[in-house]
Amino acid sequence: MLIKRKRGWELPESAATPEAIYRNRRNFIKGITAGTLGAAAATLPAGRAFAQAAAPNADLYPAKHNDAYTVDRAITPKAKATTYNNFYEFGSHKFISDAAQAMKITPWTVQIDGMVEKPIEMDFDDLVRKMPLEERVYRFRCVEAWAMTVPWTGFPMKALVDFAKPTSGAKYIQMQTAEQKDTMPGLKQFWYPWPYTEGLTMAEATNELTMIATGLYGEPLPKQNGAPLRLVTPWKYGFKNIKSIVKFTFTDKRPVGYWESLADSEYGFWANVNPKVPHPRWSQAQERLLSNGDEVPTQLFNGYGDYVADIYKGMDGEKLYM
Ligand SMILES: Nc1nc2c(c(=O)[nH]1)N[C@H]1C(S)=C(S)[C@@H](COP(=O)(O)O)O[C@H]1N2
Ligand SMILES: [Mo]
């Protein structure tokens, strides 16, 4: 018998619940539903928002929660984080979650090429089963000064880099989003530099915080959030977090990302969060929480300086914060 039970973040009071309490409740809920959740994820009742009826990797969720990354902020309700999105392939506004359901995510081929021992082409479902999945709660800060706090499921990008076996000359990784002309109306807006791409240095990609997310709120990633795999770099502005990735290219040249090629004075390569460095058109000192609309102070590196500040030592000439 399958009974749909609410997860911790679906309970309305989670909007005001500190993370530690949320987690305890979640473990409790997990305990009483052990054994039913995997099956439930594969047979979600019809009519449920954004159900991914037959995600081939649904059996991998929920993954083990990693307690090492704690956040002193309430988890953003799932209904907010999955209906207020930025995904220009489906439109240049925030309400693309319905349109994104048209994206085809099975099969999904992931390519790894460039400066690697041997190029790899692999189905996402095979790839994800080789990677160590876990759940982590991170803050997320968009360059437009809104923020959320969400439980990602995914694997450290370092595991993918090790799997790819880059050659010694590789200095950067460029990532590319799918181009599905038949499902992505945004691609018709020819003045945008499709396909969406982004890049990281090897040090950034292999930092312990950097994740390739494949899930959100204990389930496979919703399409609007970048299914089936997207980047998560919580100390950088949201636009670095490229969605629906089809290709990882190892290179010795610094890649120019989608937003950087549109307006390099507004969106740079590094894009590290810094409340003291305003965007040319607005302040970055504060951020608006998606959960309740509160304005709260923004933190340097979005609060993750202990993990990442060392990467940028001695790079003073670079535009690190834009
Ligand atoms: N392919 C692609 N990836 C993308 C974007 C996009 O338009 N296309 N928008 C970026 C921006 S600006 C943000 S803030 C985040 C939003 O992620 P979310 O919708 O999961 O909150 O996705 C990023 N990744
Ligand atoms: Mo963004």
From TrEMBL:
Instruction: Look up keyword Oxidoreductase and say if it applies.
Output: yes
- Output the SUPFAM superfamilies linked to this UniProt entry: Oxidoreductase molybdopterin-binding domain (SSF56524)
Keyword annotations from UniProtKB, A to Z: Metal-binding, Molybdenum, Oxidoreductase, Signal
Task: Report the top EC class in one word.
Answer: oxidoreductase
Where does this protein hold Mo-molybdopterin? Answer: 85, 88-89, 142, 177, 225, 230, 241-243
Catalytic activity reads: L-methionyl-[protein] + a quinone + H2O = L-methionyl-(R)-S-oxide-[protein] + a quinol; L-methionyl-[protein] + a quinone + H2O = L-methionyl-(S)-S-oxide-[protein] + a quinol
Question: What span is annotated as the signal peptide, if there is one?
Answer: none
What are the BP-aspect GO terms?
protein repair
- What this protein is called in its record is Protein-methionine-sulfoxide reductase catalytic subunit MsrP
Organism lineage string = Bacteria, Pseudomonadati, Pseudomonadota, Alphaproteobacteria, Rhodospirillales
